[in-house]
TrEMBL record:
It is found in: Cell membrane. This is Multidrug-efflux transporter. It comes from Maribacter dokdonensis. The keyword Ion transport applies. Its main location: membrane. Pfam families: MatE. The chain crosses the membrane at residues 12-34, 46-64, 94-113, 133-153, 160-184, 196-216, 236-257, 269-295, 316-335, 347-372, 384-403, 409-431. It is a multi-pass membrane protein.
Length: 444
């Protein structure tokens, strides 16, 4: 049975994926908003949360790429009608991922002060970074396990259960944040920044338990490790390694941006922390259509249904652009209240408002890049995604970042570099998709 590509089928996957996607950065945004309003050392706590959050995001994105690789392989086998052949692969991939996450955890925990000093953290901010990270990092293997399970569900064309897991984690994180950061009289002492870290860790633990239970009860996929090694594990590792290198390039841009913003001063890293969290929130919102492209694209490739694949890319790009325009309008009207949610420091807010227009105007460019990025992951085109990110980062973002620094553009230069970065990524994906799949339409 051929996969149908229409508004209903796309949004049946995209809407739950969007909700799940925005729930993930809400974990970070909640910390940022609540921490930014701490009555004691709120500015320093906000800066530390931003620095640690960026570093943890880098680690998670680098090792979390197995999610996309698992999803791509499972969806391609599903489309080819051979799903039974990959039943043992997910468990092998998950155990490999967890082992790598523990290795990374152990390798960073002993040099964490040096890592944050490289990001220009010093004094009280550095102390807060070390304390906050030492708690948050314990949830790192749990997060990667949840990501892998979500990849399995996506490969099976199911975004509902990942949505349930993500929503539960986000809601619980908000509740735990208020309880642990500000405390509950006579029951829980106020722990301020450390409380935000414990809140995230507890929410991540519950999400991992849910992911395990749902995979066990809602699918035929077993987490029991069985030998021999599945033949597709090699392809999965290669795909993951390409995404690994890609994620390093991606996070090089994010970390360099944090480093340069930190060097500008406390108010600027505070403003950048707010901006990057809202940027990531909008990215995950739009990326719901990228997830639909990932899931359906892999299945259509397995079916060799190239006409439907071409139609899918056009439709999800159009739907994503509509969503981005709605976000632009909302953000343009409510940008001042949005900033006030994260900080009550006037210096931080003025720096944030000065660059917010760049974020808003760049949303349509981001949409094309994010949506087609999802399609290419579903197609297994990880090598091209890797090369695109390397070019965009080192021939686009980095030169623009240091040009802005040389010209003393401050945060404006950092966010113009992000715009150039996203433009190169989107343009390269449009060019590749047209050149590879348009000729195949003529042969069908």
């Amino acid at each position: 049975m051929k996969t149908s590509v229409n508004f209903k089928s796309i949004n049946a996957l995209a809407i739950p994926a969007t909700i799940a996607g925005i729930a993930e950065p809400l974990l970070s945004i909640t910390d940022t908003a609540i921490v930014g309003n701490i009555p004691v050392d709120g500015l320093e706590s906000l800066a530390a949360a931003g620095i640690v959050g960026s570093f943890l995001s880098m680690l998670i994105w680098i090792l979390g790429q197995t999610r996309s690789a698992i999803s791509a392989i499972i969806s391609q086998y599903l489309g080819a009608g051979r799903i039974e052949e990959v039943k043992t692969l997910p468990a092998q991939a998950i155990y490999l991922n967890i082992a790598l996450s523990i290795l990374i955890l152990l390798s960073t925990i002993f040099v964490i002060q040096e890592i944050f000093e490289l990001l220009n953290a010093s004094g009280k901010i550095l102390q807060y970074c070390i304390s906050y990270y030492s708690i948050r990092v314990l949830g790192f293997p749990l997060t990667l396990f949840v990501f892998a399970v979500m990849g399995i569900f996506r490969g099976l064309q199911n975004t509902y259960w990942p949505m349930v897991i993500a929503i539960t984690g986000a809601v619980l994180n908000v509740i735990f944040d208020f309880a642990f950061v500000y405390g509950i009289d006579g029951f829980i002492p106020a722990m301020y920044l450390d409380g935000a870290a414990y809140a995230s860790l507890l929410a991540q633990s519950i999400m991992a338990i849910m992911a395990f239970y749902l995979l066990w009860t809602k699918t035929d996929i077993s987490l029991k490790l069985r030998l021999p090694i599945h033949p597709e594990l090699g392809r999965l590792v290669v795909m993951s390694l390409n995404l690994f290198v890609r994620a390093i390039a991606l996070n090089t841009a994010l970390i360099l941006a944090v480093r340069e913003a930190t060097a500008l001063g406390d108010k600027y890293i505070g403003a950048h922390t707010i901006a990057i969290n809202l940027w990531l929130f909008s990215a995950f919102f739009i990326d719901g259509f990228g997830a639909a492209g990932n899931i359906m694209g892999g299945r259509l490739l397995g079916e060799k249904n190239y006409n439907a694949l071409w139609l899918l890319a056009k439709k999800i790009t159009k739907y994503g652009l509509v969503v981005s325009v709605v976000i632009m309008a909302f953000a343009g009207i409510f940008y001042k209240p949005l900033g006030a949610l994260f900080s009550n420091e006037s210096l931080v807010l003025s720096a944030f408002y000065a660059i917010f227009y760049i974020i808003i105007l760049g949303l349509p460019i981001n949409t094309i890049a994010f949506v087609l990025d999802g399609v290419f992951k579903g197609l297994g085109e990880m090598k091209y995604l890797r090369n695109t990110l390397l070019v965009a980062t080192f021939l686009g973002f980095v030169p623009m970042l240091f040009l802005g620094k040389y010209l003393n553009w401050g945060l404006t230069g950092i966010w113009l570099a992000f715009t150039v970065w996203m433009f190169i990524r989107g343009a390269a994906l449009v060019w590749k998709f047209r050149n590879k799949f348009k000729p195949l339409l003529q042969n069908q």
